[in-house]
Amino acid sequence: MLLFLRKFVFGYSLILVLTTSLVAQERTHEGFYFAGGIGAAWGTVNGYNNNNQVLILKGTGVELDFQIGGSIRERLIAHGTITLKTVVAPEINGSKSNSSGFAISENMVGGGITRYTQRNLFISGNIGAGRYSFIDTSTATPGEAVTKYGFSCLLKAGKEWWIAKNLGLGFALTYGKTKLNNDSGNYTEKWNSNRFGFLLHLTLD
After folding, report:
1. What is the percent of the chain with per-residue pLDDT over 70, rounded to a whole number?
2. Which of 4, 57, 69, 160 fits as disulfide partner to 170, beta carbons 3.0 to 4.6 Å?
3. pLDDT tens, position by position, 106-150
4. How far apart are the first and last CA of the chain?
5. What distance in Å separates the CA atoms of residue 179 and residue 193, rounded to the nearest whole number?
6. How does pLDDT run across 12-70, given as a tens digit for each residue?
């Protein structure tokens, strides 16, 4: 009986080691990569012009985040990046009394690198071109104003768990900034943002 138990334990241990090794080989970040995130974004967007006017927009809205690319080597991925943050009825200069029907969107198109650890923790750095859109539906003739493009960046870090062979689900924390000058003749605007986010994060690769 003792010999049987020893053989059983040895055999079970060997199967467990081999199975774990195979799963680890199957569940790694190589080849095609797609990631998407959705969640809440908050922070400020600050605007200044050469007439000494200041506009501070603050509020919590929705953030969308997409990356598509492929691995450079195992767990190191290069990808294109698209992000969008939208806030409806933000606080304007400390008040929400005049923000009904008003929304601001911030978007970025660029690229970046994402690095995963063996525990499926990840960190991602992205840079690109970003701009703002201001939408006003409070009047009889709704309008939209769009700025020029400027420098934009997105930092992201999080954790995923494998829920299928090539499918990971987890969460991510983000920080984003878009800084630009919006000039027209003698008129100049400067825009700058500091935005944070918490996303549900899905990866397919």
Report:
1. 86
2. 160
3. 999 999 999 999 999 999 999 999 999 999 877 767 788 999 999
4. 47
5. 7
6. 444 434 444 434 445 678 899 999 999 999 999 999 998 889 999 999 999 999 999 99
Shared-domain flag, residues 96 and 149: yes
* Average pLDDT estimate for 81-97: 91
Does residue 71 share a domain with residue 5?
no
172 shares a domain with 146 = yes
Instruction: Please state the domain count of the chain.
Output: 2
Does residue 85 sit in the same domain as residue 99?
Answer: yes
The amino acid sitting at 8 is F
Looking at the structure, do residues 20 and 75 belong to the same domain, yes or no? no
Contact by Cβ (8 Å): 190, 181: yes
Beta strand pairing status for 187-204 and 150-164?
unpaired
98 & 8 share domain: no
Domain span holding position 13: 1-29
On whether both 25 and 87 belong to a single domain, the answer is: no
